[in-house]
Design brief:
One of its GO terms (molecular function) is aminoacyl-tRNA deacylase activity. The structure is a single chain. This protein has 972 residues and is α+β, with helices and mostly antiparallel strands. Helix content is 33%, strand content 19%. Among the domains are: 219-281 and 512-591, no CATH class; 307-508, Isoleucyl-tRNA Synthetase, domain 2, CATH 3.90.740.10; 669-727, no CATH class; 742-879, Isoleucyl-tRNA Synthetase, Domain 1, CATH 1.10.730.10; 902-962, Ubiquitin-like (UB roll). Strands 10, 11, 12, 13, 14, 15 and 20 form a seven-stranded mixed β-sheet that branches. The chain is globular, with a radius of gyration of 37 Å.
């Protein structure tokens, strides 16, 4: 039976008999939002349902005819009801822009003009297409691009596709469809959706990371990294899923199992390509200060880089007889002043020295613990709230400060990838260490006294600075008692270096970038390995691009070898210099690779001899405004900055940073959903009486059964039942995704653009409300009717406009220039919602005018054009212009019309103030007297009186002297 949900399907048993039924489904699906409102479709749905019992082709044909007829009838009704003909305007101007390449940025431009490079974080083209959250940032950048063009800037506003990646490969494995086919199909859908929204992209510069002409230069950058020792191979622990036969990224592992399939995942060492991003840690950190980025993003990057100053120190391992061995455990600490408080060491389960510091008695327990630890993700292991676990190794090390033997433990809250993979545990002054020590009865020694405490009553760990206590040893010669923490730290470092037990050290949380994936759908790594020696040799730059071979089988090998290893004829090769047998690298680059530098390729997308032309790069760099989601605040932006700095060092780019200004648009949440709590008996209960929501069943409540009561939502039928009202991020699983195609079909692209900007500040998260779009839709319709006129009963509009070629009044000029001033200021500040409000105020004022001067309306249309470009182009054309308004000068506010030019003028009768009138500053005496005569309060003093004289000081006072003896009617 045909359903009325987001997708409409016929029963499987019907489709083989009646292929035309698919057409019915597609018709109704494509027009579902406007069509399914009408009861006239009920009989069609019922007939489709009954059709399951029939195999008559005629019956199906009749149904198709009925749907087509209803569709035509409905469209005719919609056309009559439409507030303005957006369904005609928008396709017309989209076709015009495409045909005339209106927004193409020429390769050769006048570089004496200022430039504006505005860029969206280019999307991954998924099969789901766009939802209404995507156009939020795209609309903002489009407004900026259109605005800057009209201000005389050369504007670069491109779009492309970050199209390699796991989703396409997984779909290929499931369906046997080549990832390239899926990717091209998805790109086509995304492109058509973006074009339907009227974005002014230069489509001649469109790029995709999957095209060999593009990834040739991604491979070229990799070779430059190799030349400089920034790309290398190392054996590192990875997430290995035996069942899937592949390595998983951290985000693909949840609670120790694969997100896909729920299979156990273990940590195992594998040889991987790494990029030495740590070599640029200081520059990545320092250069953040000069960027016009949100402070929150800069702070996230600082924390991710995690620069800290401290010391590395060595603890000598001692055997069961208390004798020192040659083995040393090196730890890193930011608090060398607390060395006397170190009462145990902790090794990460993956620490390479662990196996050699196990006692026979503890060996089995440690191995069992290691097996459990390697099944956990780094996030699980370091979660602050989780209970700390560990196992004693049975061995000890000597604290170099006091000579004491302290136990060596293994615990998973220490990571092998951070620092040295080992810590000195100071339980008195670290919360994690304290919890661990209490649990396992390890001694606790306080060595820092808070400056505001007595130091004798410690009940909990103190992690702050203070004065050192219990911190001296005659055996080692180190005495820091009584010193402030910072001074003590410096003294300890001096002692470590002098005694050979350690050194000063700057450390980073930042790890080198794991750059290999056991995938097919990614950029091939341009390296071959000689069969006889295993030596890795870079592919010659002249042989790039190294293209992906065609494969029919994309499934994992199950051995850890990537899918590319199945392409024998591609893998087996020879070293062109020596002629020796060799094999190609079968790992591919991660999806991040292509998105690290795409902003450069947009400057010069067709260049076959260089990544980017130097002159073009020098003109367009850096990106002036870069807009995208906050989820890319760290990794993408950090990786792109790293690659850019490498390219800067080798002379490819002229700027130290790629993005001058970064803006994170907020998230558009799905429409508010209402749920009620139910008790064990199924009765609805008020949400305010529920302590833990998770303990109760919940039932969705339709919006029509809900009403607002104060600050809360309740059931209409039972206001005592308070509901849970919550908006969630849009997702298919929640069923709250709004397709922009549906919105455009019903309201038009300009309305969608305007609504997304009007919902609130660009950077804030907002809740979608379909009924909310009606407001901006009415504004556009009012603007249309004001300028064009009202429609005929048949729904058609007159040609041209209702403007007149007359000089505007002071009032009209003032209203216009205030609007120009506000809209300009708000676009420049990316406060688009308040810019729309200013235009709404202008239209409200214009409806009160008797006539619409053409010059006033033309200026308003230009103001409107960045926001609602389709309507603006149509109005501009109707105003008598033959060319697009895309490059017309943006109106400039005249300061003379922005001043508040009215004053409150006191009016005296025979020297006594009787009232006030509001007049222009330049008001004449005659005009002031006329206004006073018309004022209700003042006219009673003047009516019938003889005026002896008038005393007028412009902008200050009007004094009317009347003759009380003579009465004559005052002329009105």
């Amino acid at each position: 039976m045909l359903q009325t949900s987001t997708h409409h399907h016929f029963p499987p048993q019907l489709l083989p008999r009646h292929p035309l039924c698919l057409r019915i489904s597609l018709i109704i699906s494509a027009h579902r939002r406007p069509l399914l409102r009408h009861q006239s479709y009920t009989h069609i749905r019922l007939r489709v349902s009954s059709c399951t019992k029939s195999s008559s082709k005629n019956t199906v044909a009749e149904l198709v005819k009925a749907v087509d007829g209803q569709k035509a009838n409905d469209q005719q009704q919609q056309q009559v009801k439409r507030p303005y003909p957006f369904h005609e305007i928008e396709p017309k101007w989209q076709h015009y822009w495409e045909e005339n390449k209106t927004f193409r940025t020429p390769d050769e431009i006048d570089t004496s003009k200022p430039k504006f490079y505005v860029l969206d974080m280019f999307p991954y083209p998924s099969g789901a297409g766009l939802h209404v959250g995507h156009p939020l940032g795209y609309t903002a950048t489009d407004i900026l691009a259109r605005f800057k063009r009209m201000q005389g800037f050369n504007v670069l506003h491109p779009m492309g596709w970050d199209a390699f990646g796991l989703p396409a490969e997984q779909y290929a494995i499931e369906t046997g469809t080549h990832p390239k086919i899926t990717t091209l199909r998805n790109i086509s859908r995304f492109r058509s959706q973006l074009k339907s929204l009227g974005f002014s992209y230069d489509w001649d510069r469109e790029i995709s990371t999957t095209e060999p002409d593009y990834y040739k230069w991604t491979q070229w950058i990799f070779l430059q990294l190799m030349k400089r020792g920034l790309a290398y191979q190392a054996e590192v622990p990875v997430n290995w899923c035996p069942a899937l036969g592949t390595v998983l990224a951290n985000e693909e592992v949840v609670d120790g199992v694969s997100e896909r399939g729920g299979h156990p995942v273990i940590r195992k060492p594998m040889r991987q390509w790494m990029l030495r991003i740590t070599a640029y840690a200081d520059r990545l950190l320092e250069d953040l200060d000069d960027l016009d980025w949100p402070e929150s993003i800069k702070e996230m990057q600082r924390n991710w880089i995690g620069r800290s100053e401290g010391a590395e120190l060595d603890f000598v391992v001692i055997n069961g007889n208390g004798q020192e061995e040659e083995k040393r455990i090196t730890v890193y600490t930011t608090r060398p002043d607390t060395i006397f408080g170190a009462t145990y060491l902790v090794l990460a389960p993956e620490h390479p020295i662990l196996s050699s510091v196990l006692s026979e008695a503890q060996s089995k327990h440690v191995e069992e613990y290691r097996e459990l630890a390697i099944r956990k993700s780094d996030l699980e292991r370091t979660e602050l709230q989780k209970e700390k676990t560990g196992v004693f190794t049975g061995c000890y090390a000597r604290n170099p400060a006091n000579g004491q033997a302290i136990p060596i433990w293994v615990a998973d809250y220490v990571l092998g990838s951070y620092g040295t993979g080992a810590i000195m545990a100071v339980p008195a002054h670290d919360t994690r260490d304290y919890e661990f020590a209490v649990k396992y009865s390890i001694p606790i020694s306080w060595v820092v006294k808070p400056d505001d405490g007595d130091g004798g009553n410690f009940e909990r760990p103190y992690s702050g600075e203070g004065t050192m206590i219990n911190a001296s040893s005659s055996e080692s010669g180190l005495d820091i008692n009584g010193l402030p923490s910072k001074d003590a730290a410096s003294r300890v470092i001096q002692w470590l270096e002098k005694s050979g037990n350690g050194k000063q050290k700057v450390n980073y949380k930042l790890r080198d970038w794991l750059f290999a994936r056991q995938r097919y759908w990614g950029e091939p790594i341009p390296v071959i390995f000689l069969d006889d020696t295993g030596e890795g040799i870079p592919v010659s730059e002249t042989e790039l691009p190294l293209t992906l071979p065609e494969l029919d089988d994309f499934t994992p090998t199950g051995t850890g070898e990537p899918p590319l290893s199945k392409a024998d004829s591609w893998v087996i090769t020879k070293d062109p210099l020596s002629g020796k047998a060799a094999r190609r690298e079968t790992n591919t680059m991660p999806q991040w690779a292509g998105s690290c530098w795409y902003y450069l390729r947009f400057m010069d997308p067709k260049n076959s001899s260089a990544l980017v032309d130097k002159a073009k790069e020098q003109y367009w760099s850096p990106v002036d405004v870069y807009v995208g989601g906050a989820e890319h605040a760290v990794l993408h932006l950090l990786y792109a900055r790293f690659w850019h700095k490498v390219l800067y060092d080798i002379g490819v780019v002229s700027t130290k940073e790629p993005f001058k200004c970064v803006i994170n648009q907020g998230i558009i949440l799905g429409e508010v959903q209402y749920t009620a709590c139910k008790d064990d008996k199924g009765n609805l209960i008020s949400a305010d009486s529920v302590a833990e929501l998770a303990e109760y069943n919940q039932e969705k409540i339709p919006e029509e059964k809900v009403m607002k009561s104060g600050d809360f939502f309740v059931l209409k039928d039972n206001p005592n039942v308070r509901l849970i009202a919550r908006a969630h991020k849009m997702s298919k699983s929640r069923g709250n995704v709004i397709n922009p195609d549906d919105v455009v079909l019903e309201y038009g692209a300009d309305s969608l653009r305007l609504y997304e900007m009007f919902m609130g500040p660009l950077r804030d998260s907002k809740t979608w409300n379909t009924s909310g779009i009606e407001g901006v839709h009415r504004f556009l319709a009012r603007s249309w009717r004001l300028i064009v006129g009202s429609p005929s009963p048949a729904g058609s509009y007159p040609d041209g406009t209702s403007t007149v070629d007359e000089k505007p009044s002071i009032e009209q000029l003032r209203s216009l220039h205030r609007c120009i001033d506000k809209v300009t200021e708000e676009i420049e500040g990316t406060r688009f919602n308040t810019g729309i409000s200013a235009m709404m105020e202008f239209i409200n004022a214009a409806y009160k005018w008797d006539k619409l001067p053409r010059s006033i309306i033309e200026a308003f249309v230009l103001l409107l054009s960045p926001y609602a470009p389709h309507m603006a182009e149509e109005l501009w054309s109707r105003l008598g212009h033959s060319n697009s308004l895309a490059y017309e000068p943006f109106p400039k506010a005249d300061a003379a019309y922005l001043k508040e030019s009215t004053v409150v003028l006191p009016v005296q009768i025979n020297g006594k103030t009787r009232g006030t009138i509001q007049v222009e500053e330049t008001c004449t005496e005659e005009e002031a007297f006329r206004l006073a005569s018309l004022d209700t309060k003042l006219s009673k003093f003047l009516d019938g009186k003889s005026i002896r004289k008038r005393i007028y000081v412009q902008g200050k006072i009007l004094n009317i002297v009347i003759d009380a003896q003579k009465k004559v009617k005052v002329a009105q």
